[in-house]
Model the fold of this input.
Amino acid sequence: MRQNFSFSFYFSTLLATLIFSAWVLSFPHFKDRWLQPLLFLVPLWAFSHTGDGCLAAARMRRFLRLSATIAWLILLLMPLRILLGPALADPNRMNVPYPALAAQLETQGFQNGRILAADALTAGNLKLQFPGSAVVDPVTLARLGWPDGAPAGPCLWVWRATAERSAPPASLTRLATTDDLPLNPQPLYWVPTWPASDAAFAFGYALTQDCPDAD
Done:
């Protein structure tokens, strides 16, 4: 026998799953985009509580206009968040000027070689700035190793830092310790956010003659 779908059971199960994940599994946070596919049924659930008289043509037109307005606002506010974030003291990863960081690293003598970045975002952006270099993060190094034909030369270690935490993260120090490499961090680089503002991102770096091998 075919059973009717229960919105109450669905949303109760979703809420219980989130509480279980946060409390028992200790999930630190949930990104909104993770929940979007699960919440697509909310408008349908809302309409299921309206009577036939609530779906008049005039109300439907107002609903469609409101939906279109919200969609356009999202398209407008997403890029504005990048442009206005530094001025509002809320910069995000889209405001990191990697070309400026690469220029500063080049002044320290690094031109081409191997780069080990602390995270995939930094690794990908540094690959764009140093296309002739082999760039990996610790996870990629452990799974795939260095790319075939990776250039010889010095190994540049790069990580995001703060004024309170300038030391390299554990993922990098563990690799350096395993391969007995002297990881001597240099003074932090403070790179102004893009667009120009008083805020800045801090990066730590170190240079070694050899690079760690894949685990």
User: Anything to note?
Assistant: The longest strand covers residues 200-208. The CA atoms of residues 152 and 174 lie 22 Å apart. The chain has eight helices and five strands.
